[in-house]
């Protein structure tokens, strides 16, 4: 008869963290968290003119911008915005930003 591992009670949060790490979903969850955090990450002025739409699995953040003038401005600010988004969250949370003109 094979020997089974003895299992001990585990906190739900700890079990969920383990599952997310094993499944690879933890990275995607971290990327997706940028969307609700957007206003705090970029500030009210940018949040008023640019809305995050989605994040691809490769780390590309798609953001809709209200005017082409703002899109140009935000393209120039991309390095600063990327630094804010990825600060304190480990490298590579978001790898690039694609600015899209609002439809």
Explained architecture:
- By secondary structure, the protein is of the alpha+beta class.
- It has helices at residues 12-23, 25-32, 34-42, 44-49, 68-76, 78-86; strands at residues 50-55, 60-65, 96-101.
- Helices cover 51% and strands 17% of the residues.
- Strand 1 (50-55) and strand 2 form a beta hairpin.
- The mean pLDDT is 85.
Structural classification: alpha+beta
Nearest-integer average pLDDT = 85
| Low-confidence blocks of residues | none
Helix content percent band: 40-55%
Give the number of helices: 6
The percent range for strand residues is 15-25%
Quick synopsis:
The chain has 103 residues and is an alpha+beta fold.
SSE layout:
Elements: H1 12-23, H2 25-32, H3 34-42, H4 44-49, E1 50-55, E2 60-65, H5 68-76, H6 78-86, E3 96-101
Parallel strand pairs: 2-3
Antiparallel strand pairs: 1-2
Labels describing this entry:
alpha+beta, 17% strand, 103 residues
